[in-house]
């Protein structure tokens, strides 16, 4: 018995990949339709995207799912090489990480319980109301930079923000437009878009800001360019989102 | 015959209180010594110091070739002393997690490193001697007070000790069990086991002891053959004590 | 909102069940290690061993005084920034180490209480036949303390099983992580969390039956 446990521990601790040929990709597994499981199978936009990158660069792609709040820590501590979870480029993050080129162009969207969209029509209507955002996401920052941020009751969630909005625990949640539309379309929750997207955002893959990270970033960047050119990226976008979100928004 | 067990200058203090004051005592091989005296006079402490259950502050304990200086006793000294003295507790203190047989075997297997089969044989012999051959598998909680104390004595017997120490072995017992325990001690005494017994059973002390020691206030006041102590004590304190208990 | 989607829940059963071995593995290994560690900590405290006693007191105070999640994050994400070799510790191992350290602090206090609850005469009797301190602890005191502490320790084991659900924050997909990911795809949160809750409940109930049996057995062996 003792021996089997020891062997198991050894097996687990040696299972950590060290080869440079493997890109360890962290994701929450909890962000439909980008990363989620069905019948225990990990899938989504990000999964297809990273697998396509792997095919281009020849690297093995290893997916590591963990709570969203753990992802950045895992990246910093070197447990994963990048995060594929619709990470938005912000000045703070750019100072810390080496970002790939953007692969999703999106906008910030307010979502409310169905029926409330006549009352809440955009970010201005959030004054005096409670708004949920995912812990660790950049939408909290977006809200805090609004001129009337003081009047908004911002609540950070580990997960399940759509659920709590539908239940009426918060008046709205803020997420990117693309996934908001998906949530409304796919989920049985009674939710509605409130107004138009109000802030353009670009999502990309962050890598550690060191030699190794940058080398990997450069390799991945090349692959993204190829995927953009050969239409593969558009294909993935349309498969999961029905629309192409991989081209810059027209100003 | 000269002493092979010698206690000299044994002193024990609890804080300011000197409980044992410069005790000298000497036992010849096979000698059975009873210690009597008022409560709280250091009788039990003397026994406990001989086994280092209480560490004496000063004095020397000599057990055959083992010489222990109380002030400088090493762990090895203490273990050696304990392995050569058997201690019988007032409240039996049987190992609650072990059966009667295991209580007796424990010192043989764990301390002496005997193989289990040999220790079991020896334990079974002892169980027969203490009249509990059929109760070897019983746990202490299933035994009467008298039976428990007999196992307690059996546990001490198993050590084949140079000296057996009995600390008021019957005073916690219900009256109906006192007889069987005294009978067992008497049988051990008849085998000329060297022993020191602290007891309140004066008749019993008179009967089995070669020598009776009277203690008071942490000192030995008087000692001598039972007939002398009980019939013709020289010291007034001894006579006063015996008048009270007699 | 709609009624429960029973068919979906039924589909999730094999998915979540597939993670039971991992959950139990983490809990069992942590429990065995925590038992050993906590017994050692408790002994240090009971014997008041110089110097290390102070260290153990601080250890226990820290691990009882901070949330398990904070400890896991510190250990898994924080310390590797100081000690790069710690990056090689994977999520399962980190979760096991975290659970072990956290629960051994609690368990040490239970075991210490149980050791102090063993009658003084048991120590003296064991010492009187010449046992060393190690022998008397191992043969006489700890077995008796274990009986007193067993129900409490079993409760900690149950807490530990539930505590493994935090391993998802370390990138270990266990029962809870699997349920979260499934719910993300289906939006059937109630169903997914209900299934996983029923699994935890079922496991704990089975253990509770075992716990009652064990207590009856121990009660028979040593009626006091």
TrEMBL record, chain A:
Limits of the Ionotropic glutamate receptor C-terminal domain: 22-243
Keyword annotations from UniProtKB, A to Z: Signal
Pfam families: SBP_bac_3
SMART domains from the UniProt entry: PBPb, PBPe
Signal sequence segment: 1-18
Solute-binding protein family 3/N-terminal domain span: 22-244
InterPro entries recorded: Iontro_rcpt_C (IPR001320), Solute-binding_3/MltF_N (IPR001638)
Protein name (Swiss-Prot/TrEMBL): Amino acid ABC transporter substrate-binding protein
Organism: Paracoccus onchidii
UniProtKB/TrEMBL annotation, chain B:
Native organism: Paracoccus onchidii
Matching Gene3D superfamilies: P-loop containing nucleotide triphosphate hydrolases
Pfam families associated with the record: ABC_tran
GO MF term list: ATP binding
Annotated ABC transporter domain residues: 5-242
Annotated keywords: ATP-binding, Nucleotide-binding, Transport
InterPro entries hit by this protein: AAA+_ATPase, ABC_ATPase_HisP-typ, ABC_transporter-like_ATP-bd, ABC_transporter-like_CS, MetN_ABC_transporter-like, P-loop_NTPase
Similarity-based family: Belongs to the ABC transporter superfamily.
Superkingdom assignment: Bacteria
Stretches that traverse the bilayer: none
SUPFAM superfamilies (UniProt xref): P-loop containing nucleoside triphosphate hydrolases
The protein's name: Amino acid ABC transporter ATP-binding protein
TrEMBL record, chain C:
InterPro entries for this protein: AA_ABC_transptr_permease_3TM, ArtM/GltK/GlnP/TcyL/YhdX-like, MetI-like, MetI-like_sf
CDD domains reported for this sequence: TM_PBP2 (cd06261)
Membrane-spanning intervals of the chain: 20-44, 56-77, 89-108, 183-203
Keyword check for Transmembrane helix: yes
Keywords: Amino-acid transport, Cell membrane, Membrane, Transmembrane, Transmembrane helix, Transport
Gene3D superfamilies per UniProt: MetI-like
Residues in ABC transmembrane type-1 domain copies: 20-208
Bilayer topology term: Multi-pass membrane protein
UniProt keyword Cell division, yes or no: no
Compartments in which it is found: Cell inner membrane; Cell membrane
The family this protein is said to belong to: Belongs to the binding-protein-dependent transport system permease family. HisMQ subfamily.
Name by which UniProt lists this protein: Amino acid ABC transporter permease
Organism of derivation: Paracoccus onchidii
Phylogenetic placement of the source organism: Bacteria, Pseudomonadati, Pseudomonadota, Alphaproteobacteria, Rhodobacterales
